[in-house]
């Protein structure tokens, strides 16, 4: 799966409260959550993010509580992929389970990129390319079962597709 989008840059330790503040946890509707996504980290984000944009962050993205609302808010906002140096493990699995593409990259992308730069990602190969100059950054590709979950838009949708194939 190949994706292309512009970057939104964030630093280290962006916790789930920064992604979707607890005061908005009265719903699980991704579209409603998207209205407040990243509000405390970058107040412009929810109003300016475009479908397919990428969130690029440093270490420990999604730390804090285990709420599934955080990746739901990002997906609801149209984020095409989240790329970070590292993720809190529960955020990582929640993101995959709801079908939000996610990649770990050792390179300090927030320090190497400018906001709004266009990246192209090959999820299957774990390649991230800055289109401005063709510079490539490596990421471990997701295991094939996770790629399948993302392809179908989430774990439930993936299981439903597999069950249909069995009929």
Shape: globular
Helix content: 25-40%
Are there runs of 5+ residues with pLDDT below 50, and where?
A: none
SSE series: EHHHEHEHEHEEEHH
Strand content: 15-25%
Total helical elements: 8
Average pLDDT reading: 95
Sketch the major β-sheet: 7 strands, mixed
Helix and strand content put the structural class at alpha/beta
Question: What distance lies between the first and last C-alpha atoms, to the nearest angstrom?
Answer: 27 Å
> Can you list the strand order of the major beta sheet?
4-3-2-1-5-6-7
The overall strand count is 7
Instruction: State Rg.
Output: 15 Å
Briefly summarize what is shown.
33% of the residues lie in helices and 19% in strands. With 167 residues, it is an alpha/beta fold. The longest helix is centred in the last third of the chain and has 12 residues, at 155-166.
Detail the topology: elements first, then pairings.
Blueprint: E1 2-9, H1 16-19, H2 30-34, H3 45-48, E2 54-57, H4 69-76, E3 81-84, H5 89-97, E4 102-104, H6 109-112, E5 118-122, E6 127-130, E7 136-138, H7 144-152, H8 155-166
Parallel strand pairs: 1-2, 2-3, 3-4
Antiparallel strand pairs: 1-5, 5-6, 6-7
